[in-house]
Every structure is written in structure tokens, then in C-alpha cells.
Amino acid sequence: MSKQTVQKIMQKQPVSVQCQTPLVEIIKVLIGSQQAQLPVINSSKKLIGMVSLIDCQKALMISAYHCDKPVRVNDIMAKDFTFLQADEDLSEVAIKTQKYTENIFPVLNEGKLIGIMKRVDLLVHLQHNLALCSQAQ
Predict the structure, then answer these.
(1) In a designed cystine with 115, which of 8, 34, 107, 111 is the match (CB 3.0 to 4.6 A)?
(2) Is the dihedral of CA 64, 68, 71, 75 positive or negative?
(3) β-strand 104-109 against 112-118: which pairing, if any?
(4) What gap in Å lies between CA 60 and CA 58, rounded to an integer?
(5) How far is residue 54 from each of residues 36, 43, 60, measured CA to CA in Å?
(6) Coil/strand/helix, residue 34
(7) Which tens digits make up the pLDDT trace of 33-85?
(8) Pairing mode of beta strands 17-18, 37-41
(9) Phi and psi (nearest 5°) for 102?
(10) Which residues of 12-35 are buried (b: 16+ CB within 10 A; e: fewer)?
């Protein structure tokens, strides 16, 4: 079987938010995309962070309690995140990502966001391969 890469299963036009996006807008985008996390990009499409529903929930609770200044994505995004390259082998990615709790992995090319790989898509791919193995026996 030929090498199958992240590019085969990644979503090529991922939903993302720009840096400096207000909290209210981030929440709208998260809900609309039905994703638990979103990539945060700058004007050059360079990935600078990830923001999650949990990040927004924490920010809402603190802002509501303290009536703080408006929160922007740069204030709450995670700057330490796991990312993938489009040419990575899916079998290696399946092993590598087992140790992470994230369900969405940004896919980069030269630091720029070119897609996302969802864990559910990886599971579907692995299940399909297992079915092919069963048919071959």
C-alpha cells in the first residue's frame, strides 16, 4: 500500500480566527463551526495560536465577574500547541497523536495554516484501513 499522508484527510479550508478577534466573535465562530478549537492566524495566515471553547468559557467567567475590558483572542489563546505537516505519514501521526488530548490539529506549510486534521477523520481513515484488511483475509 502506498504512503498515505495527512493531506489525504485534512480539511483544506479550515475555519480560523484572526488575531485580535473579540471574545464574542470567537464564540460565534466556534459555535457555527461546531468545533471545540480554532486556529488563530495573523494577516499572513501564519499560525500563532489555538483557541478553545474552554478558553472562552474561562474568559467569560472572569470577565463577567470582574467586568474587565473586552477580551480578545490574543489574551486567551494557547501559544503552545501540536501541529502537523501535510506530508506526514498517517500511520506515524496515529501513533504520535495518541498522547495528546486535542481533537483538532492544525496542518502547516512553512508556518502557514493550510488545513486542519480532525481526530475523527483519522479514526475514520484507520477504521477504513481495518475493513480493507478484513476483506483481504
Answers:
(1) 107
(2) negative
(3) antiparallel
(4) 5
(5) 8, 25, 10
(6) coil
(7) 999 999 999 999 999 999 999 999 999 887 766 666 778 899 999 999 999 99
(8) parallel
(9) -60, 150
(10) eebebbeeebebeebbebbeeeeb
